Amino acid sequence: MKKRKAAYPEAQIVLGEEIRALRERQQVTIKELAKRVRVTEQQMVKYEAGAFVPIPMLEAISKTLDAEIQKKYIRQISAAREREKDGSEEQELLCALYREAFEE
Predict the structure, then answer these.
(1) What is the DSSP string of 5-58?
(2) How many CB atoms lie within 10 A of CB 92?
(3) What H or E segment, with its residue span, contains residue 63?
(4) Disulfide engineering: 50 pairs with which of 7, 8, 73, 88, CB 3.0-4.6 Å?
(5) Which among 30, 39, 79 is positioned nearest to 57, based on CA atoms?
(6) Which has the closest alpha carbon to 97: 21, 86, 80?
């Protein structure tokens, strides 16, 4: 039996979980957050489920939720994503970066 590929890479799922947790701590609904960052509610649901979040959107979400990500994390995330495109195994690093970037 063939193993099914996950819908989203692990690191993206971790990022979605971090966004959801931060949103819930701030007591903001998905609908409210989507409106504030100017995306559809459906798109925000996808982000929280693990869909790819572009860096500018990641910055907008974190700023909107009063958890602005430090530039050093943005640079590290961008670099890890770029290496990942080249076929490198960067999932563990990205997971750690996403968790660390959203720490309180």
Answers:
(1) PPSS-HHHHHHHHHHHHHHHHTT--HHHHHHHHT--HHHHHHHHHT----HHHH
(2) 12
(3) helix 55-64
(4) 8
(5) 39
(6) 80
Q: Which domains does the chain have, with CATH numbers?
A: 10-101 (1.10.260.40)
Q: Round to whole Å and give the CA distance between 46 and 52.
A: 8
Structure tokens at 64: 């909107």
**pLDDT digits (tens), the chain, 104 positions:** 444 444 567 888 889 999 999 999 999 999 999 999 999 999 999 999 999 899 999 999 999 999 888 888 888 888 887 777 666 667 778 788 888 887 75
